[in-house]
Design a protein that fits this description.
- With about 200 residues, the chain is of the alpha/beta class.
- It is about 55% helix and about 15% strand.
- The chain contains nine helices and seven strands; from the N terminus they run E-H-E-H-H-E-E-H-H-E-E-H-H-H-E-H.
- A five-stranded parallel β-sheet has the order 2-5-1-6-7, with helices on both faces. Strands 3-4 form a two-stranded antiparallel ribbon.
- Helix 6 (about 135-145) crosses helix 7.
- The longest helix has 25 residues, at about 80-105.
- The two termini are about 20 Å apart.
- About 25% of the residues are buried.
Length: about 200
């Protein structure tokens, strides 16, 4: 019997270790579709730039196109602006992911790394979801260090997404990334085993 390709979403709140899990999956030889990377590419497509400038003004531009830091300062902590940005960019990302999924439809497992899988209603692109989780204290500490942010700015970013606890409730599988990477990878190995067996 021919095995059907399973498209598996990998998600998690900011600074919870989603990228560490995705990088590990790549090391294991799996296809990982990076929604964030697609988003960056689409952000500078001509029609998107025009729409964004119409809404946010030319202040979001620099010599390379849309400056993500400038745009970020206008959308994080401002739900209306964030919604406007998402309405423009999310359909483009979704279409691109669908195209790539078709391309790899003969694989056993394809992983889709999407930070806002639930918030942006990307769930229809996947068959199963893995939520990478860590406790709030660890998340805040990691984000402040990684992005060189003040506590206030880090909290603004964390609060612009569903909380780790909320996401964990929505996932088919949970990876707790509050401890060592070795422990995280072991959990990922177990999930892959279950997915390949079809026990999920």
């Amino acid at each position: 019997m021919e095995m059907i390709c399973l498209n598996v979403g990998v998600t998690g709140s900011i600074a919870c270790g989603k990228s560490a899990v995705s990088n590990y999956l790549k090391k294991l030889g799996y296809i990982v579709i990076d929604a964030d990377k697609i988003g960056h590419e689409k952000l500078n497509s001509k029609d998107v730039v025009e729409k964004l400038v119409k809404i946010f003004g030319e202040q979001i531009l620099d010599t390379h196109g849309v400056n993500r830091l400038k745009l970020g300062s206008l959308v994080f902590g401002n739900s209306k602006n964030l919604e406007k940005l998402n309405e423009i960019i999310h359909p483009k990302i979704k279409n691109e992911i669908r195209k790539i999924e078709k391309k790899y439809s003969k694989e056993k497992l394809v992983f889709i790394d999407v930070a806002l899988l639930f918030e942006a209603k990307f769930s229809d692109l996947v068959d199963k979801t893995i939520v990478v989780y860590c406790d709030e204290k660890t998340q805040l500490k990691r984000l402040m260090k990684r992005n060189n942010l003040t506590k206030q700015n880090a909290l603004r970013r964390i609060n612009s997404q569903l909380s780790s606890k909320e996401k964990a409730k929505l996932g088919d599988y949970i990876v707790n990334n509050s401890n060592s990477l070795e422990f995280t990878y072991k959990q990922v190995d177990n999930i892959i085993e279950e997915l390949l067996k079809g026990d999920g």
